[in-house]
Specification:
Number of strands: 3
Strand order of the largest sheet: 1-2-3
Largest sheet: 3 strands, antiparallel
Number of helices: 3
Radius of gyration: 24 Å
Order of helices and strands: HHHEEE
Number of domains: 1
CATH class: Alpha Beta
Strand content: 5-15%
Shape: rod-shaped
């Protein structure tokens, strides 16, 4: 009598379980890479905005008032980059707050899109996320 060839049901279930676990790991890693990419883009955008603000300050002796922020970006940001500076990777606007003629805060609300609880702009953290999920200057 010939031996039957093929896989048993238990073997098939084991293979399917292993494949499911591997797929879960791959999807999780892809999601983390996307989040890191979004944060890196926001930090790059903030750097480009800071460059435009510094150019404005160099020419005018102070940073622009918040009501002139959009016009400043339009006038001082590079043409090829200007179109992307009005929104962060999560679809929120970048926020600019001038605290004094030579001081300002610049931030993105981050992936949550929620402003911090205190209602004040976040403190500068040199381009890193603070504990409120904001990306700041």
């Amino acid at each position: 009598m010939k031996a039957k060839r093929g896989f048993t049901m238990v073997e098939m279930l084991a293979v399917i379980a292993v494949l499911g676990i591997l797929m879960g790991i791959v999807v999780g890693l892809a999601g983390q890479a996307g989040r890191r990419s979004d944060r890196a883009k926001a930090q790059t955008d903030l750097q480009m905005i800071r460059t435009a603000l510094e150019e404005y300050r160099h020419r005018n002796g102070e940073y622009p008032e918040p009501r002139y922020f959009a016009r400043t970006l339009n006038d001082y940001a590079h043409d090829w980059y200007r179109r992307t500076l009005n929104r962060d990777p999560w679809g929120n606007t970048y926020h600019y707050f001038r605290t004094a003629p030579l001081e300002y805060h610049l931030w993105s609300r981050g992936p949550s899109g929620v402003h911090n609880v205190s209602g004040n702009p976040p403190l500068p953290t040199e381009g890193h996320a603070d504990n409120r999920d904001n990306v700041t200057r």
